[in-house]
Structure formats: structure tokens, C-alpha cells
Amino acid sequence: MHESPFAARSGSPARPPIQFYFDFSSPYAYIASEWIDAVAARHGRTVQWQAILLGVTFQAAELKPPVAHPIKRDYALRDFERSAHFAGLPYRQPETFPIPTQNAARVFWWLHDTQGASQAVGFARAGLRAYFTRGVVLSDPAQLRALLAELGLDADAAEQAWQDQTWKQRLRGVNEAAVAAGVFGAPFFMIDGEPFWGNDRQPQIERWLARGPFTRL
Amino acid sequence: MHESPFAARSGSPARPPIQFYFDFSSPYAYIASEWIDAVAARHGRTVQWQAILLGVTFQAAELKPPVAHPIKRDYALRDFERSAHFAGLPYRQPETFPIPTQNAARVFWWLHDTQGASQAVGFARAGLRAYFTRGVVLSDPAQLRALLAELGLDADAAEQAWQDQTWKQRLRGVNEAAVAAGVFGAPFFMIDGEPFWGNDRQPQIERWLARGPFTRL
């Protein structure tokens, strides 16, 4: 793990990385993906990105995605874009939404395990941006392959990986571990054992990282 | 409507009041009730408090309260307290939770229509604080009466009001209007026709009030 200058200067022991759970089809995860690393770095922390399938966690918690409810859908679509703009980010609501993201998530774990976390994170960031600013439909094999090629990654090897039992099983294991850890949505953050759900918990996360627990629970 | 000094100084026309929808059993509405008036005043706005029944809006949107899901319940209880402390407020999770709040909501509208909005808002603030910091169970007639007496209000008249068809019908009308306006949770804010859902939208509300729309939707 990269030792942060803050931790080194203060002589404090290295603190555990932040667990950041995301789904490639979550607008709020896209927004959070753009700030989590910088926020963590400011506090001498690293981030472990975890690609999961939101559908699996929704199912485990008997929840539905926000756009499944007609009344809530209008609000959600408005809030996605408003929250992105509030964070200073571009946003264009994809016409195809939501999408199944298992192929992209398997590519993430394949990159992670064979080329390293930073390659995987680079792909994740690019994938989220492509879907939420250019409407690149990650569930469409041709569009996912084109994106991989654009990033200089081996699209053939990636497609083999997303069809391979090894990476299907790898993703399944990550999903199960996430549900077991109490994850029921995305983005979801685990920091020093404390769960934070939602892009809108950013201010609380910043305070936690700066000053530690502020709850007696 | 009270003319704000800001609006008067800038010579701008009076802007419409903020609509603030709350339920007496919502922890996030309790938190929001402690900042909404101050935030509005800083931007030359007034607030119209609207006591609603969250159950009615949940039903209309086919939603369930967050504590209805076992996996989400643990998180929600933790987040209630953490979010209150983050806002600098005391919080004690009521043992009886959630509670039916139609009596308290009817008292709110009875006070509103017979004694004025500020009396009603004073009761609302006190009721939310009593429930979420002292565990005063507002659904228990004896405890609600004791709270009313503590506030110098006529408990006998209040009890007559909450049993009266007039105030039952009044609350029903408010709920229906809220659902028709797109309200599906609490706290819920309508500002210049823009909907904001949740205590955690406070930063976006502040920016909206300061600088207007920041979304192109």
C-alpha cells in the first residue's frame, strides 16, 4: 500500500483503505467515483474499488432501484443530473437505463487480478464516464469492446474473460462478500468498519476521515 | 408574508415560500426541521411547514420505510443518529418506532388554521424534538396531551380536534395535495417548483437558494 505523506509526517500507523462499492449502472456511483480518491488522499487513505452488481444487493435487501417506481422515477432522473452538476461533473442521462453490468464488472476483476488494481480502476472510471456522459451502453458487447480498444486494452482477451467461468465466479464471490458485509446499494463505503451509503454521504465521510467517529452508536 | 430584509434591500420581487413536508415520525425530518428556517431566512425566504403522513406517500409510490428491510434497518438506525450528530443535534432513537402520527398532524393543522402558522410550527418543532430526543411517544394520547400542556396549549381542545372529522379531512386533503405535487417521502422540499427529497439535500438547497438552478433538466 502506498504510504501517504500525512500518515508518514504524523507518524501515525497506516489506516485501513476505504472500501468503495460501485455498480457501472449507478449514476450516484459515477459521481462518487470522481471524488472518492481525492478525498481519501487528502486524509492519507487509499481506496479499494469493488465492482458489484447492484441487482444482487437489491435482491438481498428486498429493495428496488429508484427508477422502478413511477412517482420516484421522475424525481430520480432529475436528481441524477442535478447531483452531478452540483459536484461539477458533466452528465447525460443514458437512453438505455439501467443496464446489466456483469460483463463490465467481470472485466474489472479480470484487470484487477491480472494487471493490477490501478488498471482496473482506470477502466472503471472510464466506463462510468463513457456511460453517463456519452451514452456508451456497456451491456452491448460491441460498445464495450470499442471502449476497451479506446483505452488501449485487449478487447478479445476481455471478451474471453467476461465469458469465462473464472471471472463469473470471481464476481459472484465479490457480490456475496458485499452482501455479507451489509452492502445493500451503491455507492457504498466502508471506512474503519463504518458503513456509508450514497454519494450524498460525502460530507459525513470527509468529517469521519478528518476527525473520526462522531456518533455514539 | 413577512418581507425579508434581503429581498427588500436588493429590490428583487418577493420569491415564493419554501414548501417543507414532514412527518412527526421521520428522523430525517426532525434534523431538517432544525435548519430549514435558518437556511431560508439567510436567503430571504419563508417556509411553509406541511405536516403529512409519510405512510400515505409511501403507499402512493409503492415504497416502504427504510426500517422495513432487515438489512437496511441496522444501517438506517445508525445513520439516523450519525446524521443528527453531524448536524450538531441531540438524538436518541425512540424505542417505539416508527409511530402513527395522524393525531399530531391533525393537531398541527388545527393550530395552523385556528391560531396561525407560527403556533403550529412551534408545536411541530417541539413535537419532533420530544420524540427524537426524549422518546415522547406522540401516538400515545396521554403523552401527546402532556406535551401539549407543557407547551401551554389546550390539551382538551387539541384532543377534540384530533378526533374531529374536520381535522381528519383537513389532513387527508393535505396528503392528497402532497402526493399530487409529487411528494413521496419526508422531509421533502419544493422550492420554485424544484423538488428536493431528504435531509441530505441541504447543500443543494443552499446552492439553489443562493444562485438558482444548476441543472439543465
From TrEMBL, chains A, B:
The keyword Ion transport does not apply. It comes from the Bacteria. It is an enzyme of class 5 (isomerase). Residues 18-207 form the DSBA-like thioredoxin domain. It catalyses: 2-hydroxychromene-2-carboxylate = (3E)-4-(2-hydroxyphenyl)-2-oxobut-3-enoate. Its EC number is 5.99.1.4. One of its GO terms (molecular function) is isomerase activity. InterPro entries: DSBA-like_thioredoxin_dom (IPR001853), GST_Kappa/NadH (IPR051924), HCCAis_GSTk (IPR014440), NahD-like (IPR044087), Thioredoxin-like_sf (IPR036249). Transmembrane segments: none annotated. Belongs to the GST superfamily. NadH family. This is 2-hydroxychromene-2-carboxylate isomerase.
